[in-house]
């Protein structure tokens, strides 16, 4: 059981986050909640990428006074670099989405997408 | 349960099925698929080249504070990927951030709304006094994080985010505090020009865009890694200016 949890908590957890985010995007009507769901999906994908590069009992890919040589076991640095990119892009997209929400709220005085004229759900 | 929620559950279930299918694929000989958790084999991956700091030739041992004149002199291997081996990606990344900041500014300034959302008034004494103390400390912490990006966890993006947080706090405490649009643009453009200029200089002198042209020094020293520290400083200023701009547009909207 513990083994199973250890093996699946990261992959399963990240997939679960993605699915929860997807469910939220489909069912929620409040635009802020939709953006939160998108951010959840983003987090899930990031966690998944980092988990794919994980090596058991390995060090963070930084040489320092404890880990002195590159022959030691390291986790994969490339997913971490990719996730760094992904986080920044996620922040940018979230900010742009919030700006659009502010503008839509100005125009329609509601956050509910079903009450906005011209959109049907 | 509403019909919509039921439909959403079905869509999610189909997605879950497709994703879990990816984990059950059995690799053919010589093919690499998703590894089991915690068993990534780095010797098969490009990462081993980056860890050994030798993309072109055979691997050799790198010792902390002893090895010098390596291909990439950064002790933090993630940094050497972000700011050296794949710095062209990073240039694209900060361009996306710049586009998002510009997009937010354009969207929010198209037509100013008459009603102001936040009634501007004096912040509380605790916030005001606290931020006076914490503002320089945050700037210092941000500078530390991006200057030591090639030695310890952190780097330009994180440092830039911390600096932007400092300005966010300042804006929250003092509603009269205003950063000039011009100075943000100046910092951002200067940092961008430094980044692209380093790339072009590498292209002219070494033959490929953003190639390192400075001495890489000894691994683990502050002055090591060649252009990495300079690039990360430029990234920090650019990211800090962009995030400050985003926060400023959102607050003033």
UniProtKB/TrEMBL annotation, chain A:
The keyword DNA-binding does not apply. InterPro entries: CPA3_antiporter_subunitC (IPR050601), NUOK/Mnh_C1-like (IPR039428). Pfam families: Oxidored_q2 (PF00420). Gene3D superfamilies: 1.10.287.3510. It is a multi-pass membrane protein. The keyword Membrane applies. The chain crosses the membrane at residues 6-27, 34-55, 81-105. It is found in: Cell membrane. Its main location: membrane. Keywords: Cell membrane, Membrane, Transmembrane, Transmembrane helix. It comes from the Bacteria. GO terms for cellular component: plasma membrane. Belongs to the CPA3 antiporters (TC 2.A.63) subunit C family. This is Membrane bound protein complex subunit mbxG. It comes from Halanaerobium kushneri.
UniProtKB/TrEMBL annotation, chain B:
One of its GO terms (cellular component) is plasma membrane. This is Membrane bound protein complex subunit mbxF. It comes from Halanaerobium kushneri. Keywords: Cell membrane, Membrane, Transmembrane, Transmembrane helix. Residues 62-106 form the MrpA C-terminal/MbhE domain. It is found in: Cell membrane. The keyword Transmembrane applies. Belongs to the CPA3 antiporters (TC 2.A.63) subunit B family. The chain crosses the membrane at residues 94-111, 123-147, 153-172, 184-202, 222-241. It is a multi-pass membrane protein. It comes from the Bacteria. The keyword Iron does not apply. Residues 126-243 form the Na+/H+ antiporter MnhB subunit-related protein domain. InterPro entries: CPA3_antiporter_subunitB, MnhB, MrpA_C/MbhE.
């Amino acid at each position: 059981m513990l083994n199973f949890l250890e093996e699946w908590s990261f992959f399963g957890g990240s997939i679960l986050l993605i699915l929860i985010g997807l469910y939220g995007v489909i069912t929620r009507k409040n635009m802020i909640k939709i953006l939160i769901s998108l951010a959840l999906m983003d987090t899930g994908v990031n966690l998944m990428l980092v988990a794919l590069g994980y090596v058991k009992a390995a060090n963070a890919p930084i040489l320092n006074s404890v880990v002195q040589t590159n022959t030691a076991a390291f986790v994969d640095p490339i997913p971490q670099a990719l996730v760094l990119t992904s986080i920044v892009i996620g922040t940018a997209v979230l900010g742009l989405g919030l700006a659009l929400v502010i503008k839509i709220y100005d125009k329609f005085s509601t956050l509910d997408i079903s009450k906005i004229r011209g959109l049907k759900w | 349960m509403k019909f919509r929620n039921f439909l959403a559950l079905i869509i999610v279930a189909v997605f879950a099925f497709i994703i879990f299918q990816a984990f059950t694929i059995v690799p053919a000989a010589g093919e690499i698929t998703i590894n089991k958790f915690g068993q990534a084999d780095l010797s098969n991956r490009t990462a081993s080249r980056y860890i050994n700091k030798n993309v072109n030739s055979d691997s050799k041992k790198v010792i902390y504070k002893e090895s010098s004149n390596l291909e990439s002199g950064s002790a933090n291997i993630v940094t050497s990927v972000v700011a050296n081996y794949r710095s062209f990606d990073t240039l694209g990344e900060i361009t996306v951030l710049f586009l998002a900041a510009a997009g937010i500014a354009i969207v929010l300034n198209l037509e100013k709304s008459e009603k102001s959302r936040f009634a501007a008034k004096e912040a509380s004494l605790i916030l005001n006094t606290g931020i006076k103390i914490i503002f320089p400390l945050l700037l210092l912490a941000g500078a530390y994080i991006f200057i030591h990006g090639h030695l310890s966890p952190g780097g330009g993006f994180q440092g830039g985010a911390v600096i932007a947080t400092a300005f966010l706090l300042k804006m929250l405490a003092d509603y009269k505090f205003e950063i000039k649009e011009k100075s943000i643009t100046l910092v951002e453009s200067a940092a961008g020009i430094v980044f692209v200029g380093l790339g072009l200089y590498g292209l002219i002198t070494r033959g490929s865009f953003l190639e390192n042209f400075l001495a890489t020094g000894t691994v683990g020293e502050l002055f090591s890694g060649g252009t990495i520290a300079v690039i990360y400083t430029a990234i920090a200023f650019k990211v800090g200016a962009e995030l400050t701009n985003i926060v400023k547009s959102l607050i003033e909207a």
